[in-house]
Design brief:
Strands 2-1-3-4 form a four-stranded mixed sheet, covered by helices on one side. The chain folds into two domains: about 80 residues, Glutaredoxin, CATH 3.40.30; about 120 residues, Glutathione S-transferase Yfyf (Class Pi), Chain A, domain 2 (Up-down Bundle). The chain has eight helices and four strands, in the order E-H-E-H-E-E-H-H-H-H-H-H. The longest helix is centred in the middle third of the chain and has 29 residues. It is of the alpha+beta class. Helix 1 runs antiparallel to helix 8 and helix 5 packs across helix 7.
């Protein structure tokens, strides 16, 4: 398998954690696409992924699979029994729901904050910025953290009783939060405890070792 990504990117981190959980890292050739130089927005890369985002999984027959959730679903079905995306119809549904909430309420909101209310990827890449919108999304991400904190007061993982791609999505959010220096609110004790537990997982440790707290 060949995966186009950037090793310190929060979204690529999600797939790298999934690969580590499935013991598939050694089966992948990583091709770096430099986010800071805007290589993900070039015509050459857009031919692989219309959305111009990372990561992208390439198959031998020049078929491409983008979006972290889609790639994780493929990887989870590829190697042994599913462990990240659910086994029963209900588990699958809840995990998909919570993964989407993690993206909308936290990860994507932090991404908008990064691109609009901070220097982002720099003037050569950030051709339009709306600081007010970015700050609104920062506040949304903080509300999202409070939501997940309330959730984790009553269950050990984001989607219930087992580690899943929903947890990975929130971890990706915290990797992005570290880059923009957006800390977990002090009152979110359950969320802080959960994240400390997540950092004990070898898959997460491996990723955090290559992701600096900021650019």
């Amino acid at each position: 398998m060949k995966i186009y990504d950037w090793p310190t990117g929060p979204y690529p981190a999600r797939v790298r954690i999934a690969l580590a959980e499935k013991n598939l890292l050694s089966d992948v050739e990583f091709v770096p696409i430099n986010l800071w130089k805007g290589e993900h927005k070039t015509p050459h890369f857009l031919a692989k992924n219309y959305s111009g985002t990372l990561p992208v999984l390439e198959f031998d027959h020049e078929t491409y699979l983008a979006e972290c959730t889609a790639i994780t679903v493929y990887l989870d079905a590829l190697a042994s029994e599913p462990t990240l995306t659910g086994r029963t119809p209900l588990e699958k549904g809840v995990i998909q729901m919570m993964t989407k909430r993690a993206e909308i309420e936290m990860l994507d909101a932090i991404s908008v904050y990064f691109h609009h209310a901070t220097p982002g990827l720099g003037p050569d890449v950030e051709l339009y910025q709306n600081r007010e919108w970015g700050l609104r999304q920062r506040d949304k991400a903080l509300r999202g953290m409070h939501y997940f904190d309330a959730l984790l007061r009553n269950q050990p993982f984001i989607a219930g009783e087992a580690f899943s791609m929903a947890d990975i999505a929130v971890i990706g959010g915290f990797i992005f939060a570290a880059i923009v220096e957006l800390p977990i609110p002090q009152e979110c004790a359950a969320l802080s405890t959960w994240f400390a537990r997540m950092q004990e997982r070898p898959s997460v440790q491996k990723q955090l070792a290559i992701v600096p707290p900021k650019h």
